[in-house]
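We store chain and fold; example below:
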Amino acid sequence: MVVLEQEQITALYRHQNTADWVGETQMTSRWCECVPFTVNGQRYLASFFRANYINGFGSYKEMLFATTDGGVFMPKYEHRHISLHTISDAEQLIQLDADAVPPEFASLFVFTLLKATLEYQRSNRHVNQYFFHSDGELGPLVKMRADELLTEIGGALSITFYEELAAPMVGFTLIAAQRAETAR
């Protein structure tokens, strides 16, 4: 859970200069970094959490993800869970259901969320595995818009989705394209 004071929220969006904007990676707690972004002027926050087990809570097995064949997916040590928040008019941080994005700008939201993840990855090159919950359309929309992001940035990155993950988990690896070719 992310709890921010008013001055922290103000600091996160200090350099916002357009209605559709992605800020820089900021530390918001010992276990979480965030990237602020806006879509159609609405403020959002993509939070990147380390697994509870790595933070000293819970068990190793809680870190494993179920797969469609009844097995488990074992993430890398350095992976992150993405959680989304919106900022209310009263400057309150509200957990956002990943699938509750208004349909009229869902595609733009997802594209901007991918840019925010890319910003996080640029600041944390050792982290390249990302996971989030999606019970609805967000997961498929992220997969669809990922190719557009790769085209926009000129093929400098490779995104590989983990198709074996069981719903509601969606996961992907985001790495430099040159590293992706040597890793295959």
